[in-house]
Automatic annotation (TrEMBL):
PANTHER family (alphabetical): MANNOSYL-OLIGOSACCHARIDE 1,2-ALPHA-MANNOSIDASE IC (PTHR11742:SF28), MANNOSYL-OLIGOSACCHARIDE ALPHA-1,2-MANNOSIDASE-RELATED (PTHR11742)
Protein name according to UniProt: alpha-1,2-Mannosidase
The keyword Disulfide bond belongs to this UniProt entry's keyword annotation: yes
Top-rank taxon: Eukaryota
Organism: Saimiri boliviensis boliviensis (Bolivian squirrel monkey)
Length: 361
């Protein structure tokens, strides 16, 4: 993902270290950014990953501390990303070359991915604010312009778009991987603007209505889930990544039309409950990468290739949003269950190692 850049975890953790008052570790990380985070590198990196982890981390650190080194590094890195937008439509490619400044190719061949080019807006507006250079804001506003203009099947946003023609490449729609953070950035752009970015607000609620109309389902067992859409045919599954949507819908409920607010709060609660069930119904009580609703089985992984857990935060994130909104103690209890189960797995691995020190883990 980062290839030529180093220190992703250091930079992505700066704000956490600061907020947790881990002062010694924060100073060590800051010193690393000052002395060892070099931008005169050659090679390629993911535009999306560099933006959300490096630029997002640097911006957060700057706003928390006011330390100029974070602002300067964020702006310089943002400038390095600009060549990715040199396409006929202005929709950026997924990979940028730091050596040549040319844009590379996304993993989906000649397509750009909705969740990638749709998750730049927050950071790029702040790069403009902190640098005075309008080019960052212009780049992401153009993405909005293209997306507003293009015809969308039933109001849905497919996951793949050609940066050359400006047309959808496949009619695959997902609120999970490939699509997820596009929707998140819309509602958060509305909130970040002090509720003045009405374009983002309208795009968010229009997209949510289409999702609810064409993707939302309730299983025979009463579980609400958001399916994936492939040219009109539904895959009755949710990815763990899609479980952020409970928190997102809860966050956006306040500014929905008055007659829809209670509905969205309940929808958020039901989706979050379904994601909790994907944990509760697994053998380890940790949620799978994806879970299905078919053949009488609900909210469980049905394929070995999806039966794993890689510390994804989306389910616990939704617990936090729902707790903040409702103060229902069940969400804290569910979050604590994840802590206890994760700790149990760690202790179990440690115990096995102690019994068999030669075992490679």
């Amino acid at each position: 993902m980062f290839l030529c850049l180093s220190g992703a975890t250091v930079i992505d953790s700066l704000d956490t270290l600061y907020l947790m008052e881990l002062k010694e570790e924060f100073q060590e990380a800051k010193a690393w950014v000052e002395e060892s985070f070099h931008l005169n590198v050659s090679g390629e990196a993911s535009l999306f990953e560099v933006n959300i982890r490096y630029i997002g981390g640097l911006l957060s650190a700057f706003y928390l501390t006011g330390e100029e080194v974070f602002r300067i590094k964020a702006i310089r890195l943002g400038e390095k990303l600009l060549p990715a937008f040199n396409t006929p439509t202005g929709i950026p490619k997924g990979v940028v070359s730091f050596k040549s400044g040319n844009w590379g190719w996304a993993t989906a061949g000649s397509s750009s991915i909705l969740a990638e080019f749709g998750s730049l807006h927050l950071e790029f507006l702040h790069l403009t604010e902190l640098s005075g250079n309008q080019v960052f804001a212009e780049k992401v506003r153009n993405i909005r312009k293209v997306l507003r203009k293009i015809e969308k099947p039933f109001g849905l946003y497919p996951n793949f778009l050609s940066p050359v023609s400006g047309n959808w490449v496949q009619h695959h729609v997902s609120v999970g991987g490939l699509g997820d953070s596009f929707y998140e950035y819309l509602i958060k752009s509305w909130l970040m603007s002090g509720k003045t970015d009405t374009e983002a607000k309208n795009m968010y609620y229009e997209a949510l209505e289409a999702i609810e109309t064409y993707l939302l389902n309730v299983s025979p067992g009463g579980l609400t889930y958001i399916a994936e859409w492939r040219g009109g045919i539904l895959d009755h599954k949710m990815g763990h990544l899609a479980c952020f949507s409970g928190g997102m819908i809860a966050l956006g409920a306040e500014d929905a039309k008055e007659e829809k607010r209670a509905h969205y709060r309940e929808l958020a609660a039901q989706i979050t409950k379904t994601c909790h069930e994907s944990y509760a119904r697994s053998d380890t009580k940790l949620g799978p990468e994806a879970f299905w609703f078919n053949s009488g089985r609900e909210a469980v992984a049905t394929q070995l290739s999806e039966s794993y857990y890689i510390l994804r935060p989306e389910v616990v994130e939704s617990y936090m949003y729902l707790w903040r909104q409702t103060h229902n103690p069940i969400y804290r209890e569910w979050g604590w269950e994840v802590v206890l189960v994760s700790l149990g797995e760690i202790l179990s691995d440690r115990s096995r190692l102690l019994r068999d020190p030669g075992r490679v883990q």
